[in-house]
Each structure stands twice: as C-alpha cells, then as structure tokens.
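Two folds, back to back.
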Amino acid sequence: MKRNLKQLAKELAADLLAGDKAASTGTTILAYYEPRNGTPRRVVRVIENAGDPYKATEQAAHQMPTDANAVILTCAGWAAPQDDDDPQPNTPPSLHPKRKRCALVVARTLTRKTPAIISALALTGDDDIKIGTDDTTGTGPLADAINQLADHLTKR
C-alpha cells in the first residue's frame, strides 16, 4: 500500500500545484481505497475546498468512511526559505520576498499495526517533488492533526 500511496501523493501534489493558478486552492481530504482482487484504486472526496486544514481534519472525523485504507489531505500555500542567513526570519511565508507557491499532500494509513505517513511537496520552479515517508507517525502540527483524525477513525 505504501508504494501506491507514495505514487498517488506525488501525482496529486503535481496536479494541485499545476491547478493552483489563482493561488487560492483550499484543503481537500480524501478517503483512499487500496486496489484489491483486480479492482483499481479508489479515491473519494470527503471534504473539498475547505479553508483551514486543521478544521478540515476535525470536520472529516465525522464524515470519513470507516472502511477506507488511508486518509489523504491536500492543500496549497506559500513556502519561504528557512535558512540562518535570512534577513527576514520572522516574516510569514506569504509575505516573504523569496516565497514560492507550494502544494502539499499528506497521506496516513488507517491501520493499527504499522501506520505510516507519506508526504509530497511540490514547489513552483522546482521540477523535483520531495517525497517523505515516516514509518512512525510524523512530526509537526499537520502530522498531529492527521494522526488525531486517523486515531479517531481506527477507534470507530
């Protein structure tokens, strides 16, 4: 499943960044179903074009199907360099002079055995999509929100 999710995350990040022409793409949460017995993978939109990704995960907790194999969050926003030489280190990414538009996809498997988080980050002007995999639970506020959603779903 991890390989399929990794490829899907990469495809979704590229498509999201390409379609984010107005720089106003909202958060989408998807239910992912792994291919089985010759059936193709299936992706179902649960939340579409929400604003805040954290509120979207809270809303998805009540709308997500219980039989999905993974939850996927997609969102677009701004990224800025995070280096020590930055003359404006406390500037929000959306106001930073070196900002770039970015698309982020985070997938979390809904298994109790070995949960995994997969992320894909696409940046304007960069042809290489950065893929991250974490066989534990990930770190940071967005990983926390996805993990809380996944924990809620696996306990239903």
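---
second:
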Amino acid sequence: MKTIEISVNDQDVSKLRSFLTKLDFVKLIKEKKSVEIDSATRLSEQSLAEEWESKEDSRYEKYFKK
C-alpha cells in the first residue's frame, strides 16, 4: 500500500473528501494539521545543512555504495 500526501486549500477539503470517498480503491482519508516551523529553525537550516552535507561526511560513501 502507498501513502500519498495532497495539499489543498481549506475551502476545498470537503470537495476533495467527497470525491475520494466515492473511489473504492481509497483505503483511508486522514486530515493532518499543518505544522508551523519557527523562525529560528528556518534560519539555522542552511548552516546545519552545510555541516551535515560536508565533504568530510561524504568521504566514506564510496565504500558503502555497492
């Protein structure tokens, strides 16, 4: 089974839900609340990515890729 995430405008949720309930192959319709990301996290994302994706971290990848 696969899970697909679809984003729609708030006013269109009921239309989409109505459409999806008519399809016999849809197993589950679940509404998720969107999570706001705080500004400190957004600001630190780039600097953290530089550390996580550094050349030092990727030097062993050639040994593990087979």
